[in-house]
């Protein structure tokens, strides 16, 4: 068999899989036939997703994962590989955002958020990509955000983190060229998720008001997380010889009265 033929079994890892885009991506990939390893700190939430996958006939594995901890990353990857086989797909989705004015946010908090949103993805890459390169096949997907091209106010480290994440992904695309490993970016627009659900309501309202002021909320529609999962499935399911470098997914505006 040619080394460029897609293998029948492609185990996939999804970080931040306990809710939102991560959980939806795990469900979509499992429905498409990918054995899925779900990683997050909230393993109980991941187990709920895994039960839904198994009840639908899919294969799912759950293990605790804190991408800010190198030992946790290594333990997760070893456990997932032992249970599912060599990792063929890595979806770097875990992330967090907190509201705040940049010059008022505590520097330690700013650093923690950058560590989660950028360095955490690098820890996963370090743990998984070398094996992919050795086997001459694999897909790495970075879940970015539209803030990577147009920063929003009061997003603190989030905009900086997503800009940095995309910079790392673009560098990897060049470095991995010819290895059989594809690095891709999916860039969602406004999406319903638990991100921001822990914000103080007054702070959240202030952020949204400023989004309107600066033109970030042209209409009220938001994407459902499954839309991003479907985009990721399309990226990793592309046949050999095809590289979907960047996929932007934005919510369609409501129909206007004619």
Automatic annotation (TrEMBL):
Q: Does the keyword Oxidoreductase apply?
A: yes
Q: What Gene3D superfamilies has UniProt attached to this entry?
A: NAD(P)-binding Rossmann-like Domain
Residue ranges of the TM segments: 12-37
Q: Which InterPro entries match?
A: NAD(P)-bd_dom_sf (IPR036291), Sc_DH/Rdtase_CS (IPR020904), SDR_fam (IPR002347)
Record keywords: Membrane, Oxidoreductase, Transmembrane, Transmembrane helix
Under PROSITE patterns, the record lists:
ADH_SHORT
- Asked if the record carries the keyword Membrane, the reply is yes
Q: Which Pfam families match?
A: adh_short
- What NCBIfam families would the database entry show? PRK07775.1
Q: Which family does it belong to?
A: Belongs to the short-chain dehydrogenases/reductases (SDR) family.
Name under which the protein is recorded = SDR family oxidoreductase
The record lists the organism as Nocardioides aquiterrae
């Amino acid at each position: 068999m040619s080394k460029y033929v897609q293998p029948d079994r492609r185990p996939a890892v999804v970080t931040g899989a306990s809710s939102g885009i991560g959980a939806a991506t795990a469900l979509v990939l499992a429905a498409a036939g990918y054995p899925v390893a779900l990683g997050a700190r909230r393993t109980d939430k991941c187990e709920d997703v895994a039960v839904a996958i198994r009840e639908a006939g899919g294969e799912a594995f759950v293990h605790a994962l804190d991408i800010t901890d190198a030992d946790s990353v290594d333990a997760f990857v070893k456990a997932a590989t032992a249970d599912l086989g060599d990792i063929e797909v890595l979806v770097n989705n875990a992330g967090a955002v907190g509201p705040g004015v940049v010059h008022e946010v505590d520097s330690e908090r700013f650093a923690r958020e950058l560590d989660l949103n950028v360095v955490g993805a690098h820890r996963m890459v370090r743990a998984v990509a070398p094996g992919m390169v050795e086997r001459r096949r694999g897909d790495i997907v970075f879940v970015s955000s539209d803030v990577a091209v147009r920063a929003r106010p009061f997003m603190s480290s989030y905009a900086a983190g997503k800009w940095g994440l995309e910079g790392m992904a673009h560098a990897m695309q060049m470095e991995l060229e010819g290895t059989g490993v594809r690095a891709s970016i999916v860039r969602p627009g406004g999406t319903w998720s638990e991100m921001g659900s822990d914000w103080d309501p007054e702070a959240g309202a202030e952020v949204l008001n400023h989004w309107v002021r600066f033109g970030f909320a042209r209409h009220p529609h938001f994407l459902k997380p499954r839309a991003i999962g479907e985009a990721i499935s399309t990226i990793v399911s592309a046949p050999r010889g095809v590289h979907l470098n960047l996929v932007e997914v934005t919510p369609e505006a409501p129909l206007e009265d004619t």
